[in-house]
Amino acid sequence: MTPQSVSEGQTLCQSGEPLNNLQLIVNGTAKLFFPGGEILLEKGDVVGLLELDDDTHFFTYKATSDMTLMPYPYSRKDSIEPLLSSSEDLANLLAISMFKQVCFLLDHYEMSKYACSNLYQSLLDSYNVYRDLCTRYEISPKALPDLETAAPLVLEDDIEDWVSGYYTTIRKTISGSVPAFLTKNPPILSGMMIKACRDVKNTLSVCRILADYQSDTAVLLLNENHLDFFDLYTSLLFRLGSKAQDSTAISAAISKLLIQLETENSVDGELLKKRVTEYKDRLQALEENGFVEEDTPAATEQEVASLANSLDTILNYSKCELETASNFKSLIAEYKKLIDKNGSDDNSRRLRAKITKLFYEIYESAFFASLEDQKVPDIVMMFFLFGYVDEELAGMDNAAYLYSLLRQIPSAPEKGVYTVYDWFLAIYNGKKEPSRNEFDSDYTAYIHEMRVTGKITEAKERVLVQDRKGKTAFEIENMFSLVNRMTFGRISTFCPVFSEHNVLKDIKASLVTAELTSSYFQKIKGVDYSAYCREAIYTNPSIGIGKEMVQVEVLPDVILMPNVGVRGVMWQEIEGKKRTTPCRMMVSIFQMEDLETILVRLTGEFRWEMCRRVQGARWNDLSERSLTSEYCDYIQFYRKNRDLSTDAKDKLKSALQKAKNSYKEMFVRDYVSWVLYEGAGSPRLNKVARNILFTYCPFSKEVRKVLSANPQFREILERYDIKNVQRLHHLDNVEQRIKNNRGEIPEELVRQRAFLES
To answer: Taking every pair of C-alpha atoms in the chain, what is the biggest distance, in angstroms?
Structure first.
C-alpha cells in the first residue's frame, strides 16, 4: 500500500460514490459533511469508516489542508474482520476513530434537536415581542402567514435515549488504547463496529429530518420573498417614519435578530448580506430624509406575469373612448409619482377629482361590456370588486392577494351579501330596484321628474322606466359614486382606485365576508332580538282574522364597496314603498375599523330611519309615542328632566356637542352602548335613555334573564313582562277562535308567538 498525497480543498470522496477503500489520515485534516453539519477528521482518523456496512458513501469528505492518506482496499463483501485481524495497532486505530466519529455525530444530533426546538420557541417569542412593539408604537402588526402553519418539532422515529450514553461510554473505555480482549477478538470488535454503522445510519436519517425542519423553519427568519421576521422588524422601524428617533426598542430587537441570523446555519449567508445592505441603505435614507418608502415584496413569476400591465387590460376591455383611456392612464401615472397621495394642495385635489370622474365612466363602460362576456378577465374583475387598476399602485403583495381572492369571492347574494358587481347584476337582471339618489328620489321618480320638466316625452318615460341598462347606469352614477366616497371615510382625500397607501392594517384581516357579516347580525339579534323586524298587517277572513299586526323579520342587504375604508352607510331602510323589503347597508370590502361596531351603528341608524318611515310626518310628535318622538323629546328637553341628575345633564350636553346637535347621531351612539355594553351587563346609559331603548329595542330573553338580578333593570323588566303577557293573551284568544272554527293556525301567527316569546 502506497501513501497518497491530497491537496487542500480536494474532495476525497463524494456521497453516492462506491466504497472501495478506507483511508487512514497519516497527516493533515479533512471534514466529513452531512445534511446540517460536519465533523473534523484529524491524524489517525479513518475516512469511510462510518459507511463500512454499505456499498456506497453517504458522507462527503473534503481535505481542509494538504494531506497524506494510507488507503486500505475495502468493500462490504470483504468484511472488516480481516483488517482487524491483520494488526492490533490497525484495529486500535480503526476502533478509536470509529467511536470518536460516532460520538461526534450523536453530539451533533443532540445539539440539532435542541436547536430545532429552541428555534420554534424563539419564533413564537419573537412574534410576541413584535406584537408588543406594534402595540407600544400604535402600529397594526403584520401577519406572517408561514408562522401560522409552523409547528413544534415532532420526531416519529427518534433515536432511543440509551444510544448516546452507550457510545459515549464505549469511547471513554477505549480512549488511548482499545482493551486487548477486543483487539484479540476481531469478531466482537467487528460486530460492535457494524452495529455502530447501523446506528449511524439511523442517526443520520434523523439528522436529515432535523436539518430540513431547521431549514424550513428558518425561512421565517429570512427569505427571498421578505415574508420573514427580518422584514417584520425592519418595516416596523421604517413605518415609524419621522418617529424613528424613538425606536430604540425596535433597533435593539433588530440587533438581536441579526445575531440569531448570523449564527443560524440554515440561513443563506449571501441573502443575509444582501438584506442587511438593503436595510442599512434604507436606514440611512430614513435618517437623512425623515421618511423611507417600503420596498415592494417580491411576487412569484406567475403573479408578476398575470398582473403585468393591468391598467391597459382594464382600459382595453372597457371599450371607453380613446381620449378617456389616454387621460386616465396619464392621471394614474401622475398619481403613482405622488409621494403624498393624500396631499391637500390644489394639484393633488384636482388630480384625485379627475381620476374619480373618469374612474366611474370607465367602470360603467366596463360593466356593460362584461354583460356580453361569459368569462370576465381576472384583472377586470379585480377592477370591479376592489377598484384595482395598477399593480404598482396597489403594491405587488396587495395585488397578488386581490388576485387570489377571485377564487374565494367573499359575497353571498343568496344570503343578502353582495359585491358591488353582484349588486349591479341584480339590478340589471331585475332582481333588485335601483337605490334612491342623494335627493331621496328612486329611479321611477327620477324618470317621472324628467318628464314633468319636459326633458323627455311621456312615451319615452314608459320606455325608460323598464330600461334595465338605464336602471343600472342610474345606480352607478348616483348611489355608487356617492356611497363609495362615504364608506372610504376620508372624503377630502378620497380617490376610488386601490392604492397601497390606504391600507392602514393587515388587508387580509380587514376583508369583509358574508360569513362575518352574518355572524355579527346574529350576535346583534342575540341582544336586540327585534332589531330587523318590522310590523305588518296580516289578514285571513277564511279563518276569521280580519286584521292582526305581526312582526316580520327581514335581514339587511349588505353591499361591499370596492375600497379600503373606515365607515359604513345605512343608505335606505326599505326598497321602494314596501316595508317588508330589506334595508341597504354599505360597507367597504376591506374594513379598517371594527366591523362589529360598524354594523351595530348601522343597525341603530336603521331602527331610527325605519321608525321615521312608519311614523311619517309625525315621527317627532310626542302625542304619538314612538322611538323617534320619545328620544327627540328626551334630548330636546333634557335640561328640564327631573329624572336626570346634574352630572347626567352635563354628560348629555357634551355628547350633544360631539354629535353636532344631531338627535339621530345621539341615538345611534346610545344604541351602540345599548348593544355592546348594556346588553353585557355593563351600564353606560342614564335612566331615561335606558327606559326608551328598552321600550323600543328590548333585550332578548337570554339577556333579560341575566339582567333580572340587576336593580337598574328590575322596573323596566317588570313593565315589559306585563305588556308581553297582554300581547300573548291576545294571541291566545285569536288562536282559540281559529281552533273553535276548526281552522289551522297559520304560519304567520306561529312566527308571531315565537317572536313574543323571544
So the answer is: 121
CA dist 420 and 92 (Å) reads 82
As beta bridge partners, residue 77 has none
Angle (nearest 5°) at CA 255 between 253 and 261:
105
Residue type, 648: A
Find the mean pLDDT for residues 734-758. 88
Task: Give yes or no for a contact between 125 and 150, defined as CB atoms under 8 angstroms apart.
Answer: no
Distance set, CA 743 to CA 407, 541, 542, 746, 752 (Å):
52, 11, 9, 9, 17
- Order of strands, sheet of 37-41, starting from the edge strand that comes earlier in the sequence: 11-13, 60-63, 30-34, 37-41
726, three cell numbers: 297582554
Q: Cell 321611477 sits at which residue? A: 444
Among 273-282, 389-398, 474-483, name the most confident range: 474-483
Distances (CA, A) of 642 to 51, 636, 719: 96, 14, 21
Q: Classify residue 314 by its DSSP letter.
A: H
| Residues written for the chain | 758
SS3 content of the chain, % helix, strand, coil (to 5): 60, 10, 30
Q: Count the Cβ atoms, other than its own, within 10 Å of residue 136.
A: 11
Q: What is the mean pLDDT of residues 679-689?
A: 92
Q: Is 189 left (phi over 0), alpha (psi -120 to 50) or beta?
A: alpha
Which residues have C-beta within 8 Å of that of residue 267, sequence separation ≥ 6?
218, 221, 222, 261
Host H or E run for residue 560: strand 557-565
Q: How far apart are CA 474 and CA 435, in angstroms?
A: 9
How far, in Å, CA of 560 to CA of 473, rounded? 18
Grid cell 453516492 in the structure block, residue? 16
- Which residues lie below 8 Å from residue 186, measured CB to CB, with a gap of 6+? 81, 84, 85, 91
Using a 10 angstrom Cβ sphere, with 0-12 exposed, 13-18 middle and 19 or more buried, the burial of residue 667 is buried
Q: Is 387 exposed, middle or buried (0-12, 13-18, 19+ CB in 10 A)?
A: buried
d(CA 487, CA 481): 11
Cell of 99: 467511536
H or E segment at 255? helix 248-263
Average pLDDT (53-71) is: 91
For residue 649, the tally of other CB atoms under 10 A from its CB is: 15
Mean pLDDT to the nearest integer, 81-88: 87
CA distance 116 to 37: 14
Quote the pTM value: 0.62
Query: For residues 584 and 606, what is the distance between their CA atoms, to the nearest angstrom?
Result: 9
